[in-house]
Specification:
Elements (H helix, E strand, L loop, with lengths): L6 H13 L5 E5 L1 H12 L4 E5 L15 H22 L18
Parallel strand pairs: 1-2
């Protein structure tokens, strides 16, 4: 959400959290989620950030939460599609997620 880059929106988020009596966050997400969590942390909110992205693009991590699950799901589904393609003598095109990371597609 691009508007979360604005300080006014971040302060509004802090107000909403305060009204809900939330005094800390555990954020599991990718680059955007963790940037948002860091912004709230700079305002004094206690935040724990866990890299959770199938893109595997979080600096300082070997493999983020979600990458292995995504890979194994893709493998399982491609195996099923291959069986269907062979039995019907057809060709299928498969697109997987992963943005700029080719890890899941290879």
């Amino acid at each position: 959400m691009p508007e979360f880059l604005q300080e006014e929106t971040q302060r509004k988020a802090l107000d909403i959290l305060a009204k809900q009596r939330i005094d800390g966050l555990v954020v599991i997400g990718g680059d955007g989620s963790l940037k948002g969590a860091r912004a709230l942390h700079h305002f004094g909110l206690p935040v724990i950030g866990l890299p959770g992205t199938i893109d595997n693009d979080i600096f300082g991590t070997d493999m983020g939460i979600g990458v292995d699950t995504a890979l194994n799901t893709i493998i399982s589904l491609v195996d099923m599609i291959r069986a269907t393609a062979a039995s019907h003598r057809r060709c299928f095109v498969v697109e997987v997620m992963g943005r700029g990371s080719g890890y899941l597609a290879s």
